[in-house]
């Protein structure tokens, strides 16, 4: 048997402990070392009367078994008296039944039940709350009932109070989490002195209170991390409950009314629980309404559930199963040879003297190209791990590499053994196909070296009724509408793909003419990640003097294939430390990489960042001021806000800039460009509307409901924007 749970040094208050469930809890805690406050008013089953006998008897039983206990005879409405010497509180409310049909429930019946069950729980918990916060520990168990969850004839007052306890517990779970205060709710079924008059003796025997107490003890233990849970328990069985919601149906269109006849006609779809969602918090609940507003703006409805279900089965794609799944961990060992081979594979040559540092291990500055960071991560897919993920049953010959994001957290070593951990971040339905977002984190020992996000497009696997966008996707960015600041061209060799594949991508599409023909190509094509490597090293040479330590991240979208022997032309636009890039085939002018950029670290000499040219984004001024403010008042702002805000500033309908305001970590920080961490809320707004909002000319709520301001994530945090944006009207 595993190590027993003990409660030595813990003070436990059990209300209604004179009999039934409360008595069983008190005895169990006492046996396992807790000091128990046995509270019982000693009333009858209708809540009347008062006696110390019930509580005294339980105290005697605990002491007889070597435990510590003291009786308390106060009403739970006198919470302060119960908590007087307690450092930990576990709110237990005994059941008081006053069965009346709703039509016969008097004000007295209603008020008595609510005072004892709901108000009593509030009073006891409030008295204990500050003690728990100070000691950074607390476990609270609320007792609801099946009548509260499902309703029951003749118990309107009792049902309302018991479900009210669940709402109270859910909020306490949220507010107490950062103080290590956990609050859970149980709905027990057990025989007691309050139900023995209505239950047959045989049934009472099978529903012993001792079959409920073990769950209460576990939820009360410091090892238990469950928080905000709801459990039914009885007769030796325990089950966890959660909310479930149908996919629903949008029943209005943009600029049109909403009518009861439409609700009637769509009722079956509204009530169809096929592919039901399971919202776990208010943010997930509100997120659906935010998505609905977006769909209404684009006249895009939610597909009926039966179609979605059939499409899911036909495509073999099930986001509910796949998202969050982890692939087997992969290991990649390499030496300087692999670094050199990769550099040759992306077009480096000894003809260029400044390439030697990536090609010769004896060079004093011998380095590994930053984009080599994709090589260890791709083993997660190449080793067949993707095919083992539940919910991703598709034809791998229809898989295309859509986009790639790479971020380095330190320069890559020129040799070593690395491990990569991959998980499915999201699955999207693009109609003509499915998009799989695969996140891969690569480590050297316990140190994170780099992060990759693969955007994989599965042709023909769409139409399963999933969402089209994800806040987990690293976004592409449109390049500035002006002549490139720099252009660099390199000609690939006839054997470029044959050379690049030696770095680990053995797909015969890049070497075998017959296989390429099956894919609809006249001849083998160049790897997309090879073009990716060409473009990245062009930026590194043009703007970082081939200093690999300056490289931060790169994002690209693969548009068209390149044939070995064609010339790759990289166009570059510099905006601060971000270099927007677009890569073309010089001979045809066809764009092969779009929406791309490379972010560089500032030069070691502290060279100032170049600001946007005239005609750039006005919001740059506001974010620059926010950055200065964070430097001065960051710690204070973190205390007030405690959240990470992502901003997507658009211009002409495209994302023109990305900012992240981190007021959750340390003394706060402002980041420009894609953010590798997790934001609590992301706001998308045009540059012009953003300035209208911060200058007080546009009400944020009106902007939101007009579709001018879109919010993803915890929408409630938008209320804290005033702390961040105030005092900018002068700009």
Brief rundown of the structure:
The protein is α+β, with helices and mostly antiparallel strands. 32% of the residues lie in helices and 23% in strands.
Low-confidence blocks of residues: 45-49, 87-105, 300-314, 606-615
Report the span from N to C terminus. 68 Å
Based on CA atoms alone, the radius of gyration comes out at 32 Å
What's the total helix number? Answer: 23
Shape: elongated
Total strand segments? 22
In terms of DSSP E residues, the strand content is 15-25%
Question: What composes the largest sheet?
Answer: 10 strands, antiparallel
Q: Looking across the biggest beta sheet, what order are the strands in?
A: 8-10-11-12-9-14-17-16-15-13
Overall mean pLDDT stands at 82
Helix content: 25-40%
- Strand pairing plus helix content: what structural class? alpha+beta
Topology:
Blueprint (H helix, E strand, L loop, with lengths): L10 E5 L4 H12 L3 E5 L13 H12 L3 E5 L6 H4 L24 H29 L2 E6 L2 H5 L5 H21 L4 E8 L12 H6 L6 H8 L9 E5 L2 E5 L18 H6 L1 H4 L11 H16 L7 H11 L3 H4 L7 E5 L1 H10 L10 H4 L14 H9 L16 E10 L7 E14 L3 E12 L2 E13 L26 E6 L4 H5 L12 H6 L9 H17 L6 E8 L8 E9 L2 E8 L5 E10 L18 H23 L1 E9 L2 E10 L5 E4 L8 E6 H8 L5 H6 L3 E5 L7 H5 L6
Parallel strand pairs: 1-2, 2-3, 4-5, 5-6, 18-21
Antiparallel strand pairs: 6-7, 8-10, 9-12, 9-14, 10-11, 11-12, 13-15, 14-17, 15-16, 16-17, 18-19, 19-20, 21-22
Helix pairs in contact: 1-2, 1-8, 4-6
Describe the structure.
The structure is a single chain. The protein has 731 residues and is an alpha+beta fold. Helices cover 32% and strands 23% of the residues. The strands form four sheets. A ten-stranded antiparallel sheet has the order 8-10-11-12-9-14-17-16-15-13. A five-stranded mixed sheet has the order 20-19-18-21-22. Keywords: Fatty acid metabolism, Isomerase, Lipid metabolism, Lyase, NAD, Oxidoreductase, Peroxisome. One of its GO terms (biological process) is fatty acid beta-oxidation. Belongs to the short-chain dehydrogenases/reductases (SDR) family.
């Amino acid at each position: 048997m595993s190590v027993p749970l003990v409660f030595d040094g813990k003070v436990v208050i059990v209300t209604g402990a004179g009999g039934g469930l409360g008595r069983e809890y008190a005895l169990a805690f006492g046996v396992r070392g807790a000091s128990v406050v046995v509270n019982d008013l000693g009333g009858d089953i209708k809540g009347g009367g008062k006696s110390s006998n019930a509580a005294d008897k339980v105290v005697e039983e605990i002491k007889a078994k070597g435990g510590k206990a003291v009786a308390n005879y106060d009403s739970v409405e006198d919470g302060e008296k119960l908590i007087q010497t307690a450092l930990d509180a576990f709110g237990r409310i005994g059941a008081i039944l006053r069965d009346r049909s709703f039509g016969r429930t008097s004000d007295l019946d209603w008020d008595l039940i609510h005072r004892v069950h709901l108000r009593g729980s509030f009073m006891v918990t409030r008295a204990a709350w500050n003690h728990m916060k100070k000691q950074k520990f607390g476990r609270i168990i609320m007792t609801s009932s099946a009548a509260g969850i499902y309703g029951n004839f003749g118990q309107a007052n009792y049902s309302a109070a018991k479900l009210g306890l669940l709402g109270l517990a859910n909020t306490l779970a949220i507010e107490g989490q950062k103080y290590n205060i956990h609050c859970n709710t149980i709905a027990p079924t057990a025989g007691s002195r309050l139900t023995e008059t209505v239950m047959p003796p045989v049934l009472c025997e099978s529903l012993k209170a001792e079959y409920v107490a073990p769950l209460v003890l576990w939820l009360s233990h410091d090892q238990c991390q469950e928080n905000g849970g709801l459990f039914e328990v009885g007769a030796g069985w325990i089950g966890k409950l959660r909310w479930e919601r149908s996919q629903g149906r949008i029943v209005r269109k943009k600029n049109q009314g909403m009518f009861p006849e439409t609700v009637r006609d769509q009722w079956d779809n509204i009530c169809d629980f096929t592919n039901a969602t399971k919202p776990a918090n208010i943010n997930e609940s509100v997120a659906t309404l935010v998505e609905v507003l977006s769909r209404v703006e684009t006249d895009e409805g939610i597909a009926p559930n039966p179609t979605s279900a059939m499409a899911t089965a036909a495509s073999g794609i099930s986001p509910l199963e796949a998202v969050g799944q982890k692939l087997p961990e992969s290991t990649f060992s390499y030496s300087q040879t692999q670094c050199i081979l990769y550099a040759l594979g992306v077009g480096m040559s000894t003809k260029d003297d400044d390439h030697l540092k990536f090609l010769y291990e004896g060079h004093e500055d011998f380095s590994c190209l930053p984009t080599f960071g994709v090589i260890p991560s791709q083993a997660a897919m190449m080793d067949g791990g993707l095919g083992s993920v539940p919910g991703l049953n598709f034809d791998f010959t229809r898989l295309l590499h859509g986009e790639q994001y790479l971020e380095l957290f330190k320069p890559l070593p020129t040799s070593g053994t690395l491990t990569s951990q991959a998980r499915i971040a999201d699955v999207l339905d693009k109609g003509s196909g499915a998009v799989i977002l695969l996140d891969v984190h690569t480590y050297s020992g316990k140190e994170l070296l780099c992060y990759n996000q693969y955007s994989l497009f599965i042709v023909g696997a769409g139409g399963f009724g999933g969402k089209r966008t994800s806040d987990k996707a690293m976004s592409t960015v449109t390049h500035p509408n002006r002549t490139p600041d720099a252009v660099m061209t390199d000609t690939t060799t006839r054997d470029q793909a044959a050379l690049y594949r030696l770095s680990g991508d053995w797909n015969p599409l890049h070497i075998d003419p017959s296989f390429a023909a099956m894919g609809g190509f006249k001849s083998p094509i160049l790897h997309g990640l090879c073009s990716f490597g060409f473009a990245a090293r062009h930026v590194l040479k043009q703007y970082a003097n081939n200093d690999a330590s300056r490289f931060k991240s790169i994002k690209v979208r693969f548009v068209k294939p390149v044939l070995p022997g064609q010339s790759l032309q990289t166009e570059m636009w510099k905006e601060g430390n971000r270099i927007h890039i677009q890569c073309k085939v010089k001979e045809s002018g066809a764009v092969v990489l779009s929406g791309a950029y490379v972010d560089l670290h500032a030069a070691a000499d502290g060279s100032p960042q170049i600001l946007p040219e005239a005609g750039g984004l006005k919001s740059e001024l506001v974010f620059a001021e926010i950055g200065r403010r964070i430097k001065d008042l960051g710690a204070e702002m973190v205390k007030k806000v405690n959240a990470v805000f992502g901003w997507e500033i658009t211009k002409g309908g495209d994302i023109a800039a990305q900012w992240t305001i981190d007021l959750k970590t340390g003394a706060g920080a402002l980041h420009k460009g894609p953010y590798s961490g997790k934001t609590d809320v992301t706001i998308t707004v045009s540059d012009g509307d953003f300035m209208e909002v911060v200058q007080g000319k546009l009400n944020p709520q009106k902007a939101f409901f007009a579709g001018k301001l879109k919010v993803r994530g915890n929408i409630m945090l938008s209320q804290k924007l005033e702390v961040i944006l105030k005092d900018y009207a002068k700009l």
